[in-house]
Write a structure and sequence with these properties.
314 residues, alpha/beta, Rossmann fold, Arc Repressor Mutant, subunit A, 6-stranded mixed β-sheet, 13 helices, 10 strands, 43% helix, 12% strand, elongated, DJ-1/PfpI, DJ-1/PfpI family protein, transcription
């Protein structure tokens, strides 16, 4: 079995999950016989993290070949302008590895390191939704793909924030060892689902939770738990102690959606995941609560509502 090296390039103030998520994926894959060897390198031995846990890293790099991977985890930075302290020598390492046929990857703000190295020029990429516009301004020769989990372009793989590093790593395991192996890794890690790269960074459950209305949050909790079931508006309103009219008014003001439309978005999102995993449209429709595929097909063709920041609701 040929060993594939995965080198994590550590930057001070890195986010632990940016590192631990992908590292766990490759470590678990190695336990399943995939032959990964993990290394951690940095410009200094002692690496402070954003969460306060100190890390130790090697200064010397292992020998790398074209089968191997370098991953740059992200770090805490309100803006990319306050980038991680990677010197020219480390950036040159990234370029040299890619030029020799290797793969480089980033999680979250780690994309900025690839941008500084020139590896995003002329390529598609992504990053955390909070800094994607800044990434586009800093590297105008790159094409920043907004609100996706990860993007692969010519052995440069970039992912969104924090937990999406798990999705990126599972994708690379699938590329190297097949989708079935990646699914085994995901199951071992108790990951809810192996998501495709073009899925949105936030789920419908999160996109419409930026408001301050307790009653609407309670209604959403009920819908989230029973989105496949028929939920009469009267029963939903009674459960949160409001009239039907008041609940509809507050729900729409807080989320931009009616309760029914919110439930439909949940159903569509779950159906899309099932379809991406090989389910037929008919089977996916029935699994999420539609009587048949006609309604699902019609709703899939309808533009999604992107929530604005609502005024606080009582």
């Amino acid at each position: 079995m040929t060993v594939r090296r995965v080198v994590f390039l550590l930057v001070p103030q890195l986010h632990l999950l940016d590192l631990a998520g992908p590292a766990q994926v490759f470590s678990t894959a190695n336990d399943l016989g995939c032959g990964y060897e993990l290394s951690y390198v940095a410009e200094q031995e002692d690496i402070p993290t954003a969460q306060g846990v100190p890390l130790k890293a090697a200064i010397e790099w292992p020998e790398l070949g074209e089968r191997d991977l370098i991953v740059v985890p992200g770090w805490r930075a309100p803006t990319l302008r306050r980038h991680g302290a990677l010197g020219t020598a480390m950036l040159d390492r990234l370029v040299a590895h890619h030029t020799a046929g290797g793969t480089v990857a980033s999680v979250c703000a780690g994309a900025d390191a690839l941008g500084r190295a020139g590896l995003l020029d002329g390529r598609r990429c992504t990053t955390h939704h909070d800094v994607q516009e800044e990434l586009a301004r800093r590297y105008p020769r790159a094409t920043v793909v907004r609100d996706v989990l990860y993007v692969t372009d010519d052995r440069v793989v970039t992912s969104a924030g924090i937990a999406s590093g798990i999705d990126l790593a599972l994708h690379l395991v699938a590329v190297h060892h097949g989708a079935a192996t990646a699914a085994r890794v995901a199951r071992s890690m108790v990951v809810y689902a192996r998501r495709n790269g073009d899925q949105q960074q936030t789920s419908a459950m999160l996109r419409h939770r930026t408001h301050l209305s307790d009653a609407v949050h309670r209604a959403q909790d009920l819908i989230d738990a029973r989105y496949t079931s028929t939920l009469p508006l009267g029963r939903l309103a009674a459960a949160v102690g409001l009239s039907e009219r008041t609940l509809t008014r507050r729900f729409t003001a807080a989320t931009g959606l009616t309760p029914l439309r919110y439930q439909q978005e949940l159903r569509i999102e779950h159906a899309e995941h099932l379809i991406s995993q090989g389910s037929t449209v008919e089977a996916a429709a029935r699994s999420v609560g539609f009587q048949d595929a006609r309604m699902l097909r019609r709703l899939r063709g309808r533009p999604q509502r992107v929530p604005s920041t609502p005024a606080p609701q009582p």
